[in-house]
Amino acid sequence: MIFLMDLQMMLLDVIYFILRNSVRVVMRPRTKPIDGELVLITGSGGGLGRLFAQEFTKHGAEVVLWDINGTLNEQTAKLVREMGGKAHTYTVDVTNREDVYRNAELVRKDLGRDVTMLVNNAGVVAGERMLDCPDELIERTMKVNCHALFWTVKAFLPQMKAQNHGHIITIASILGLFSTACVEDYCASKFAAVGFHESLAHELLTEEFEGVKTTLVCPYIVDTGMFEGCKIREEVELLLPPLEPQYCVEQAMNAILIDQPLVCIPRLTYLPFLCRALLPWESNVVTYRFMGSDRCMYPFIDARKKQMSNTPVTVA
Ligand SMILES: NC(=O)c1ccc[n+]([C@@H]2O[C@H](COP(=O)([O-])OP(=O)(O)OC[C@H]3O[C@@H](n4cnc5c(N)ncnc54)[C@H](O)[C@@H]3O)[C@@H](O)[C@H]2O)c1
Ligand SMILES: *[C@@H]1O[C@H](CO)[C@@H](O)[C@H](O)[C@H]1NC(C)=O
After folding, report:
1. By CB distance 3.0 to 4.6 Å, which of 115, 147, 205, 279 could disulfide with 283?
2. Does this UniProt record's set of keywords contain Transmembrane helix (predicted)?
3. pTM (2 decimals)?
């Protein structure tokens, strides 16, 4: 009897959330205020990280900027300060867990308060064919895009849980939801990031830390240079051009500010995600072939190779 009542409740809830989320597509719910939040962004010297820093500043938040590249990070801080915002920079290698824990303590000591929003944005790609790629470069992708999520979350989640207030944001990729050829390192690390994020989201809900929100951001190719050269069929590219970094970050912010659990940018990319789950593998293969997305990474890897032959790559 209780089982049947639970079943009925669950089905009603399922329908409620389908309806609510459909309505939300046209009628945006109210955004939450984030002035007064302390937002830590990793990879804040890069294309998206820098724009995230600026967007959070626009909304009145204070930002803590973590990047392995101090020069790029200072430039971001300068932009934030010019906007009248507060920025604190730290040169951190997020793959080094001692470095992460040490700097987390330092932030706490320097600012005298806890980080309330964590944006795990730092990311890399090897950009070489797997069989040509030095092992260290493959490992680096896994460490930056996946392992680092554990270290930063371990450093900042305890205080969020203690206050039952916070927000964990993971910048993954649509290549964490479906894949293509010749980016094995990246896809493996981003699928891992998605798995990590979702398991954490479930954990917080199961343990009733409703105040600690999570948002998984999965963007399509963004014009930041990371995937420079990547190309799909021309006719399809008109429908699905590389994203403007500013547009991508604005869409992500919209989702974050309404505590949306998942956002794919642009919306059209929900379609291949669905197809992957619903269609036979071979059907997906022929659509990839049609759209030129099977070989989209080839020109990207060629472009990287040319770049590398000018500047010898150093592997940390
Ligand atoms: N650009 C795209 O097409 C695209 C698409 C989907 C998802 N993403 C994801 O968005 C995020 C940001 O990408 P982006 O385009 O701004 O890249 P980017 O290369 O412009 O910036 C990445 C930043 O991360 C920093 N970083 C790298 N390794 C680090 C480390 N070990 N410790 C600390 N910082 C480190 C770099 O110094 C750089 O400033 C990444 O996670 C990326 O995978 C990018
Ligand atoms: C930081 O990035 C700039 C621009 O890409 C680069 O010229 C510089 O060598 C980098 N510095 C470090 C310490 O990696």
Report:
1. 279
2. yes
3. 0.97
